[in-house]
Amino acid sequence: MKTSYFSRLLLFAVVFSVGFLSIGCGEQSSSSEGADSSAERRAWAIAIHGGAGHFGEEDLSDAEQKAYQASLSNALQRGEEMLSSGAGGVDVVEAVIRLLEDDSLFNAGRGAVFTAEGVQELDASIADGASRNCGAVTGVRGFKHPISVARSVMDSSEHVFFSGHGAGEFASSMGHEPASNEWFWTKKAFDRYERAKSKSQKEEDALANKRGTVGCVVLDKSGHLAAGTSTGGMTYKRHGRIGDSPVIGAGTWADDRTCAISATGWGEYFIRTGVAQDVHARMLYGKQLLGRACRGAIFDEMGSLGGDGGVVGVDAQGSIALVCNSAGMFRAWATPEERGVAMFGATLEGTVEVH
Ligand code: ASP
């Protein structure tokens, strides 16, 4: 028997918070909700995700779980090494996401899902919390590392967002590495496309629940925040459809005063509620701490409209939050003191995981 979408959503609602958040922020009294600027800042912090969805342990074989663990851990390690040796946040975000884009397990770069027309149209964005500058591309075809094209938009153009053909022209003019259709093709994504083609709309929605967007947020040793997100979007998306990942304020955000955020999930809902900027605004104007702000944006706003997914976030003190209302989110995090990799909710029903 098929469980309805909403009951699954409720049943598997899980929240993960790590870092300086000592308890679930929802339980904090209002007097202690202000941003804790007196807290000592961690030297650095990093969190990454590889997509959120309605998957549980039973949906992935042991071999698949090991493969995701290894890929997430490997990407995290690259970030840890760079951060501990003093690399800048934007460089770390770009390097980590490039690794994930090359990894066919994820729906970004190689391994990206197919559009309804049977091609890959890639989206990416990057944001620098120090300058509050950003860059994004959508509907890019034939470039290996969309995150690096987004970085070039930020660093080397007077614009922040390029689409489709123009994004491709810009990428070429900046010398970005092209890639053939064979590079992007994976059996997993193609099978999913074939299934989507032959299914009813309702079944397509269920298929769309397995995603694999990638994202990275960091606090670097100089105290700067950065965030990035890269994706192929949703399987069988219509030509020209744009999700949240390249939309600054929905899928990605960074501001040294508050947080760096990368989102993953049902993009339309993340755009409708401006999730990444919602977290920032809750912190800046509402004086909420990171974990509480993430929960508010995910559960009270995006989730209440019927969307699903999650965010990873880092704040200016090096606290980390990993919050989702889906059953699973591929995720990993590290600070100088600890590191972790996780995929599934530790428990059912809205609990908080504290590290
Ligand atoms: N948010 C992405 C999109 O809607 C998909 C995902 O994160 O899995 O394009």
Q: So, CATH architecture?
A: 4-Layer Sandwich
Uncertain runs with pLDDT below 50, 5 residues or more?
1-35, 346-355
| Biggest sheet descriptor | 8 strands, mixed
Give the full name of the CATH homologous superfamily.
(Glycosyl)asparaginase
Give the helix tally: 11
What Rg do the Cα atoms give? 18 Å
CATH topology: Glutamine Phosphoribosylpyrophosphate, subunit 1, domain 1
- Mean pLDDT equals 86
What is the class in the CATH system?
Alpha Beta
Percent of residues in β-strands: 15-25%
Order of strands, widest sheet: 5-4-3-7-6-2-12-13
The percentage helix is 25-40%
The general outline is globular
> Count the strands?
14
What is the gist of this entry?
The protein is α+β, with helices and mostly antiparallel strands and 355 residues long.
Describe the structure.
With 355 residues, the protein is an alpha+beta fold. It has one domain: (Glycosyl)asparaginase (Glutamine Phosphoribosylpyrophosphate, subunit 1, domain 1). 33% of the residues lie in helices and 23% in strands. The protein contains eleven helices and 14 strands. Strand 10 (309-315) and strand 11 (320-324) form a beta hairpin. The chain is globular and about 55 Å long.
Question: How do the helices and strands line up, and which of them pair or pack?
Answer:
Layout: H1 5-11, E1 14-18, E2 45-53, H2 62-84, H3 89-102, E3 122-128, E4 133-140, H4 146-156, E5 161-163, H5 164-173, H6 181-184, H7 187-197, H8 201-208, E6 214-219, E7 225-231, E8 252-254, E9 259-265, H9 267-272, H10 275-284, H11 290-302, E10 309-315, E11 320-324, E12 328-334, E13 339-344, E14 352-353
Helix pairs in contact: 2-3, 3-4, 10-11
Residues 51, 211, 213, 231, 233-234, 243-245, 264-265, 267 line the site of aspartic acid.
